[in-house]
Model the fold of this input.
Amino acid sequence: MATCYSTSTYAAKCGGNTDEIPELIARSAALASICKVSADELCQLSGASHWQDARYYLRDLGCDTTIISLGADGALLITAEGEFHFPAPRVDVVDTTGAGDAFVGGLLFTLSRANCWDHALLAEAISNANACGAMAVTAKGAMTALPFPDQLNTFLSSHSLAQAMTVK
Done:
């Protein structure tokens, strides 16, 4: 946790100097079991012009599991078992503010409730994260549509979520 904290606050502690952040992130990824980035963040970190060209960047740095959030296109899970695409639920978008935070909240909520992070749990966590992100964009503002667990369950039961598709 200290590594994650220091990565996210490094620029602020150094007076806004961001030159050393890529190296700090590289060291952090090597220590992490799971790395979650958005497609845009992955391009910024790797220097690639498209996320697909950089999808193995964090794995190559030593991170066992990479989750790439793709906005309305869902998320990609990369593990030693392969690549798995999780489509996002289709909703009417009002405001995308907070969607990424909602995704991370849903992911961490699900992962925090288990003792073992196997493929089935990761799949459930990403499906829940996609649903939280989708719910967040259905109202204006970052906090307005963030779901409670019962609201998430209702949403999940009323939206048919496609199973993850193996990419490779």
About this structure: Residues 1-10 have pLDDT under 50 and may be disordered. The helical segments are 2-13, 21-31, 39-46, 51-54, 57-61, 99-112, 119-136, 149-158. DSSP finds eight helices and five strands in the chain. Residues 103 and 129 are 4 Å apart (CA to CA).
